Amino acid sequence: MERIGLIGAGRAGTAVGAALAVAGHPLVGVTARSEASKERAARLLPAVPVLTADEVTTRADVVLVAVPDDRIGEVARTLPLTSAQYVVHLSGAHGLAPFAGLAATPIALHPPMTFTGGPVSLDGVLFTATAPDSARYVVERLVKAMNARVQWVADDQRARYHAGIVHGANHLTTLVAQAIDVLREAGVADPAATLRPLLTATLDNTLRSGHHALTGPIARGDVDTVAAHLTALRVLRDRTATTYAELARATVEMAAEDGRLDAETAARFADVLAEARDGQRPDRTGEAPR
Question: What pLDDT digit, counting tens, does each position of 23-36 carry?
């Protein structure tokens, strides 16, 4: 099996390194500069020596550069890499450009997963890879060893790929946090418990069926309900009303495109949402949502 060298002891790098070690790949060393990194390396990679970057690199077949995105290229250029090695980063946003001009074969390998600093199971995670054809067998072997899967994305599509990941995951946190705040303002004692079964079912249905999973007032054409929501949210004096209106506009367009909303109803929604964008209070009945 390939010998793995880990440059950086951040959350993602140590988690992937630990998964490779469990799979039987020898980890020849890890670099760790801060006290937090040293503690994380000691906890997740207890049998792996903490070495200098040069020492790690010269002992490894695969050098995993697990540093912040904007430092990948800078750090990689300082390593004594050879043409017999593979150099890998874990960034979703970057492709192969940070490794341009290096002797080693470049690989971009992104695990779309949340890393909290502790042990993380990568079972079933669908890694997204970009690499020359000559490196594909190495990528597939490493990913399979972690009991994960791999898909391939073209180098010039990495930014678009990462935008989709961030929009779906990071912005979901923003959306749910705003919803929790609104429920709390409404006097709901346990917003998380209120939302959990609905969100779980909605996420599962959407992952299976895409936009066909849409339910709620827009799918039903309840214009007055949406107007009442905007009136209720505006008094909170935060960004929630704006977020709601922008997402509602996108939802109306989606529902109109697949035929669930007729042109007249879509136009009524557009009027209400335009009023919200212009800062005017919708003059509607305030019908309670269902």
Answer: 999 999 999 999 99
Cα–Cα distance measured from residue 152 to residue 129, given in angstroms and rounded to the nearest whole number: 5
pLDDT digits (tens, 9 = 90+) for 171-214: 999 999 999 999 999 999 999 999 999 999 999 999 999 999 99
On the CB side of 248, how many CA atoms lie within 13 Å of its CA?
A: 30
- Give CA torsion, residues 20, 45, 86, 136, to 10 deg: 20
Closest CA to 129 of 110, 114, 146: 110
H helix intervals, the chain:
11-22, 35-44, 53-59, 72-76, 136-145, 158-185, 191-209, 217-220, 223-234, 240-257, 263-277
DSSP string, 39-101: HHHHHH-TTSPB--HHHHHHH-SEEEE-S-GGGHHHHHTTS---TT-EEEE--SS--SGGGTT
144: its two tokens: 């399979």
